[in-house]
Amino acid sequence: MRYWTFVLIIGVEFLIVAIAGCGFHLHCNVHVPDEMQTMILNSYDPYSPLTRAIRVKLLLNGIILIDDVDSSNASLPLLRIINASESQGITSVFQNGKPAERQLILTVQAQVFMPGKYYYPIEIIVSRSFFDHPLIVLAKDAEENIIRQEMHQQAAQQLVCKLLSAHAVEQTDNAVLLEVPVTQ
How would residue 72 be classed by pLDDT, with cut points 50, 70 and 90? Predict the structure, then answer.
C-alpha cells in the first residue's frame, strides 16, 4: 500500500514539473513592447460598447492611452478603429418556415499606425449563433444582448492580441510601409 502511495506521489510531482517546464502559457499572454507602452486610441464612435471593451483590454495589458484630442503626439503609435458592423443570418428554420437559429456576425476593421514606420490593417470577425424561439421573446432579447456583449469582449481580446503582435510585422510583407519624407 505504501509503495503505491509513493509511486502516485512521485507520478503527480513528475506531472507538475513536466507541465510547468514545457513552456505552457495562456493565449495572447505576450509582453507589451516598449514602443507600444503608450498609444493613442482613435475610434469612429468613442462611446460604443466595442470601443469601451477595447479600452478596458488595453488598460488591462498595461498600455497607457492618450486622448486623440492632442494631435501633437506624432511620435506615439495610433490604434484607429475604422468600422464595426453587425449582421444577422438565419442558419436553420422550423418546419413552418420560421427561423429557428440565427447567427450574429461582428466585423471590426482597424489600423495600427507606427510613427514613421508602417501601418498594419486589422480585420476581426466574430460570430455566434443562438436559438430564436418565437414563444420566448423576452428571454431571446436578453440572450441576444448577452451574446453581443460577449462578442464585443472577444473582438476586443482578438484586437489586442493582433495589436501586440503588430510590432513584429515590420519585417514581413503584411505591413504597408509609409513613405515619410525626412525634413531637417
Answer: low
